[in-house]
């Protein structure tokens, strides 16, 4: 294919089928997820790619990335909303590759796979001093805690297998609210806010909007947007961060709020205030 020519769905599927060129398979897995492919062959091929293992040399850093095709396949499967992906993603959650576990956890959360709650909790249960401890020689943690916490929040609280007590779940998540890394604290508060709708967790996220590090402020913005916690609107609009991210967060407050009336053709006064804040940033 000539350089610069856009990839088509048929070409992406062909690239994922072939086994000779890992680079093509890597890109095809990403493309099928990015374009939300609806082709009947996409999910089976991505599930096959999820089982692939092997490093890829990053030309920019010269460092081997473990299992890149499987990671891209895991990310793509979360975007295609197909329940056939749940079982293989649960298997990937047991991988020794923490990057693959990270991708699998996020996708399981996107898919609303309640069967993932227990294995995710088992990963987090050892606590911030074990699961959340730094991995020697790297900047990563022993477990991809941020992704695991975010997945629990995305799954929400629904009864499963006769379980009626959510306190053990909340206890595991609350342990990460005081983690030494603010990004983990932000993810924990985001998850707790989604699980409980208690304002105290939204207030902690708002406090992180004042953090001295831009990366932390960015994370808190996006976390607030995902939760739809509307009392954060004013603080989000005033955060020292890119307007593009503030717009994403404000849009999330409008669209993700449990209080949103999706049957009404007219926005509520609260939504109007958020929309005006968005206009001011444009």
Spatial arrangement of strands, main beta sheet:
1-2
Residue-averaged pLDDT: 92
Radius of gyration: 20 Å
Low-pLDDT residue intervals, each spanning 5 or more residues: none
State the separation between the terminal residues, measured CA to CA: 39 Å
Helix tally?
15
Largest sheet: 2 strands, antiparallel
User: Proportion of β residues?
Assistant: under 5%
Instruction: Tell me how many strands there are.
Output: 2
Give a short synopsis of this structure.
One of its GO terms (cellular component) is phycobilisome. This protein is mainly alpha-helical and 282 residues long. Helix content is 57%, strand content 1%.
Describe the structure.
- The chain is mainly α.
- It has a domain at 145-150 and 167-258 and 268-282.
- It is 57% helix and 1% strand.
- The chain has 15 helices and two strands.
- The chain has helices at 9-17, 22-34, 42-50, 68-79, 86-92, 98-110, 117-124, 145-155, 167-174, 182-196, 199-208, 214-227, 233-238, 243-255, 269-281; strands at residues 56-57, 64-65.
- Strands 1-2 form a two-stranded antiparallel sheet.
- Strand 1 and strand 2 (64-65) form a beta hairpin.
- Helix 10 (182-196) runs parallel beside helix 12.
- The protein is globular.
- The protein starts with 8 loop residues before the first helix and ends with a helix.
- The model has no long low-confidence stretch (mean pLDDT 92).
